[in-house]
Amino acid sequence: MNIAFIPVRGGSKSIPLKNIKLLNGKPLVFWTAKAAQESKYIDKVIIATDSSEIKEAVTKFGFSKLEVYDRKPENAQDTSSTESVMLEYIEKAKLNPDDRFVLIQATSPLLKSIYIDEMFEALNNSDADSIFSAVREKQFHWIETVDGVKPINYDYKNRPRRQDFQGLLAENGACYINIVKNVIADKCRLSGKILAYELPAETAYEIDEVSDWLIVENLMKAKN
């Protein structure tokens, strides 16, 4: 079985009740739940929340694969890791060790079902254990040192043209696929041999601040 798991809290500080605030006419979490619902590989969609308001909102989506899980308050704090609620649910639901566990973050509403399907296919056609969604960054990165700064992904004395520059792959936070037994063993969303699956650049936007919200909403409107 392939289980999509979408953790959402009611205690967002930057944007209150962010996960059910309307984005392009639908609650934010609707968009990733819809992507999971429409994926041909996902068997079950779990929205894990500590909020009665969020629970009421998501049960109105009418998605056949969707179930709501009441997460423990101690795993829904500002300091709680995503892995803590993943492991809580896996233990509570007594998942099969060989099930595929698909972590999807509600703050990435530009995720589409086709991207999830392509990630499954990339994983199935490899000997990898897990996979994450990524975008390619073509900025020139530097790190601070005691002597100033130094580049980490290019030679500033031989600055490459953008079209010739490979850049770096960055997690976009949208989707991670692993096997339940690996999540339990490593207490991590990624394990073993890991693949990155490159998605379009606009999927880099994760909604954490009001400015992110405005950008993503306009992108969605532009793409209809």
List the helices and strands and how they pair.
Elements: E1 2-8, E2 22-23, E3 26-27, H1 28-38, E4 44-49, H2 52-58, E5 66-70, H3 82-93, E6 100-104, H4 113-124, E7 130-137, E8 142-145, E9 148-151, E10 168-179, H5 180-186, E11 194-198, H6 210-222
Parallel strand pairs: 1-4, 1-6, 4-5, 7-11
Antiparallel strand pairs: 2-3, 6-10, 7-10, 8-9
How is this structure best described in words?
With 224 residues, the protein is an alpha/beta fold. Helix content is 28%, strand content 27%. The chain is built from 6 helices and 11 strands. Strands 5-4-1-6-10-7-11 form a 7-stranded mixed β-sheet, sandwiched between helices. A hairpin with a 2-residue loop joins strand 8 and strand 9 (148-151). The longest helix has 13 residues, at 210-222.
